[in-house]
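Sanity check

After download, print the first record. It should look like this:
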Amino acid sequence: WHEIPPGCFEAAMLRAAIREERMLEITYRDELGNETVRRILPLMLAYFVGAVVLAAWCELRQDIRHFRLDRIWTLDVLSERRQGDGHRLRKLLPDIQ
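Expected structure tokens:
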């Protein structure tokens, strides 16, 4: 087993944003260290052997993207809500079995 890299944010805060369908603004660093600022609608947290991943609708890419929590450098929970969008978009996620 691998040690999961620590994230900078409490999973409870992310779970609340998922439940309340609140938009987030994040600064994300990819594996090469390139930074982008994204506005995302969080959909679910997935726990893997080597990482915790946030699946979210990304406004920049206009698609569902996955963000490793240990690569999110800043996170702001916005007041903007997308009621009903979270449920609709989760139906697009593949079944995890």
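If your output differs, re-run the checksum step. Summary of this record's structure: The chain has two helices and five strands.
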